[in-house]
């Protein structure tokens, strides 16, 4: 639409009125606005029928910056609304003072109807001059139209003439005359076509139809669900952690855990490698001894479960274990808070057991060098300790003198080997019935070398810290702190007394009074009351003589003066002789009985052969006990 103007120059007044006659369309009273520009301008607008009129006045005495932010409130610019249903326009304007007072910056005034959304005040400076014809200033306006002069209800009643197509809704225009068709919400297109409006896929236009989650199109609408792990209205915004964020967080946590585990495993492996090197593993792995891993022994002992514990001593605990090869072992785990002290005990015991190879000494199978203090792995001895069989009255092992004598001889053989045949010689230092183990065949094996010391071939005594078990300790060693091979002899003498009497070194009498077993034993021996204190019965006079001989030998071992005690070799030889004598005597006795039985059989054989064997007659087999020869 052209703009009307009113100007004044030296040639006189120039006025251009604008008139638009009545037509089928209406000017939108909501979208359009009547506007005037100028500093000495009065503008008015009426309809063709003169049933409506509106005006506005714009005055100013100095130049006004016509920026887009100008409110058009009457200074350089003014505005007025138009009525609903307006179809014709008659715009006129004039000035009060012919722009005389503002001619330096404003010679013309303009008036026009314009779309509110397209109006830019900055396009209308006060210094603007009019143009004519095709160059005239024009503005955009919004016009309305409607279908006939019917209401929606009247139009719907006549389906053939109803203008709205499918998915369209009848509505009233702003002017209130006739009706119009609009696409239903969620549809778009031409509502006046027969096929009507088409469904809008809102998911393809996120700018107009926001969705902060998972979008799903529906007929005339759409759904928006928040991502997994979040909640709220997906169209407005979701709260919480999304699935991607959640997965990323979980992934980061898992990665962190993996890194920590790897670092822990690396540190643990480095620690094991360091322990292995510090404990001499680089040298020991080239020797015949087997090297066990820490994990292997932990699995074998069920992580050192208390149910696997075989015993506990002053230097550590021993656990039963079954490695992958199904061979039972005994694992010695040193205890203590001082690593230097524990390593010293390990080195000492390792130095001893690595020199030993005897059938009556527990065999070292291997080591574990990955721990803070190395572990010793011994062969597993299944039948427990000699102490258990001595003091457990349900055990039948020591019911016969034969087994007692054999076990005593085997212990003496082992100690003699340590003193005389090992290189260098070894003093056990803690000989007691608890440290004597019995294997599957009830063969005695000396164990626990925690208190043992190595001595040179030219050395007979050694000063050491007093350690051992009261009741078995050499009194001379207790007084002087000097350990000798004769100290083991004294302790062995106590074991002999224990074997003979079945009592512990520190026991109580029947009345409950504490007594010294050694003194009690020697007193009984010297007063010919030996057989009263034995906890078994001799089979015959021959055994009684052997028992007395062993008792006298024990008495010699228990001499308070070490030099007056026999050597372990002398003790071993004496016990070996007694064992041989016992075997020969037992064999001779069996031979005499056999000859007697054979003689009787030869006289009655014919009668027995001719007489049928009755149901009550049985054959009694004779069993002969075999003793393993000593080394």
UniProtKB/TrEMBL annotation:
ATP binds at residue 333. Residues 304-578 form the Protein kinase domain. PROSITE patterns: ASX_HYDROXYL, EGF_3, EGF_CA, PROTEIN_KINASE_ATP, PROTEIN_KINASE_DOM, PROTEIN_KINASE_ST. GO terms for cellular component: plasma membrane. SUPFAM superfamilies: Growth factor receptor domain, Protein kinase-like (PK-like). It catalyses: L-seryl-[protein] + ATP = O-phospho-L-seryl-[protein] + ADP + H(+); L-threonyl-[protein] + ATP = O-phospho-L-threonyl-[protein] + ADP + H(+). CDD domains: EGF_CA, STKc_IRAK. Residues 199-239 form the EGF-like domain. Keywords: ATP-binding, Disulfide bond, EGF-like domain, Kinase, Membrane, Nucleotide-binding, Repeat, Serine/threonine-protein kinase, Signal, Transferase, Transmembrane, Transmembrane helix. Pfam families: PK_Tyr_Ser-Thr (PF07714). One of its GO terms (molecular function) is calcium ion binding. One of its GO terms (biological process) is cell surface receptor signaling pathway. The chain crosses the membrane at residues 241-267. Coiled coil: none annotated. PANTHER family: PROTEIN KINASE DOMAIN-CONTAINING PROTEIN (PTHR27005:SF315), WALL-ASSOCIATED RECEPTOR KINASE-LIKE 21 (PTHR27005). This is Wall-associated receptor kinase 2-like isoform X4. The lineage of its organism: Eukaryota, Viridiplantae, Streptophyta, Embryophyta, Tracheophyta.
């Amino acid at each position: 639409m052209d703009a009307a103007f009113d100007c004044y120059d030296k040639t006189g007044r120039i006025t251009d009125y604008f008139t638009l006659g009545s037509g089928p369309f209406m000017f939108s009273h909501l979208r359009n606005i009547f506007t005037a520009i100028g500093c000495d301008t009065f503008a008015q607008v009426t309809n063709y029928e003169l049933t409506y009129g509106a005006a506005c006045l714009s005055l100013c005495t100095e130049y006004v910056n016509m920026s887009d932010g100008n409110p058009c409130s009457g200074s350089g610019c003014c505005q007025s609304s138009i009525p609903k249903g307006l179809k014709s326009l008659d715009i006129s304007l004039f000035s009060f003072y012919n722009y005389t007072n503002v001619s330096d910056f404003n010679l013309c005034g303009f008036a026009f109807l314009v779309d509110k959304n397209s109006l830019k005040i900055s396009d209308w400076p006060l210094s603007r001059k009019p143009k004519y014809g095709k160059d005239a200033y024009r503005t955009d306006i919004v016009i309305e139209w409607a279908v006939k002069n019917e209401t929606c209800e009247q139009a719907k009643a006549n389906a053939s003439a109803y203008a709205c197509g499918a998915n369209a809704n009848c509505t009233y225009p702003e002017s209130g005359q006739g009706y119009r068709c609009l696409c239903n919400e969620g549809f778009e297109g031409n509502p006046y076509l027969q096929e009507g409006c088409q469904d809008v896929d809102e998911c393809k236009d996120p700018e107009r139809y926001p969705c902060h989650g998972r979008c799903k199109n529906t007929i005339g609408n759409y759904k928006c669900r928040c991502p997994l792990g979040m909640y709220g209205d997906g169209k407005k915004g979701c709260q919480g952690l999304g699935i991607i964020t959640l997965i990323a967080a979980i992934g980061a946590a898992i990665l962190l855990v993996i890194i920590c585990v790897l670092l822990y495993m690396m540190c643990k492996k480095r620690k094991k490698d360091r322990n292995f090197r510090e404990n001499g593993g680089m040298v020991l792995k080239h020797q015949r001894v087997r090297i066990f891993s820490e994990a292997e022994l932990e699995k074998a002992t069920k992580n050192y479960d208390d149910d696997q514990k075989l015993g506990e001593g002053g230097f550590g605990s021993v656990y039963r274990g079954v490695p992958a090869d199904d061979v039972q072992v005994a694992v010695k785990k040193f205890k203590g808070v001082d690593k230097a002290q524990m390593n010293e005990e390990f080195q000492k015991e390792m130095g001893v057991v690595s020199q030993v190879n005897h059938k009556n000494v527990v065999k070292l199978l291997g080591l574990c060098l990955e721990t803070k203090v190395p572990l010793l792995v011994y062969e597993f001895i299944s039948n427990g300790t000699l102490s258990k069989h001595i003091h457990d009255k349900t055990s039948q092992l020591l019911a016969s003198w034969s087994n007692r004598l054999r076990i005593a001889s085997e212990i003496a053989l082992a100690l003699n080997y340590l003193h005389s045949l090992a290189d260098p010689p070894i003093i056990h230092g803690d000989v007691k019935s608890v440290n004597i183990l019995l294997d599957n065949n009830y063969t005695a094996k000396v164990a626990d070398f925690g208190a043992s010391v190595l001595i040179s071939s030219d050395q007979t005594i050694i000063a050491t810290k007093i350690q051992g078990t009261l009741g078995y300790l050499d009194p001379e060693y207790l007084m002087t702190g000097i350990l000798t091979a004769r100290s083991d002899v004294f302790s062995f003498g106590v074991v002999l007394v224990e074997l003979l009497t079945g009592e512990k070194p520190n026991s109580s009498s029947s009345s409950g009074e504490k007594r010294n077993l050694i003194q009690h034993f020697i007193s009984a021996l010297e007063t010919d009351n030996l057989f009263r204190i034995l906890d078994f019965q001799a089979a015959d006079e021959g055994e009684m003589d052997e028992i007395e001989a062993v008792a006298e030998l024990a008495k010699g071992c228990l001499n308070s003066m070490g030099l007056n005690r026999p050597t372990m070799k002398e003790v071993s030889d004496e016990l070996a002789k007694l064992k041989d004598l016992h075997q020969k005597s037992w064999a001779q006795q069996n031979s005499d009985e056999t000859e007697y039985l054979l003689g009787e059989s030869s006289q009655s054989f014919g009668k027995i052969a001719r007489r049928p064997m009755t149901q009550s007659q049985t054959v009694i087999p004779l069993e002969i006990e075999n003793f393993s020869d000593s080394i």
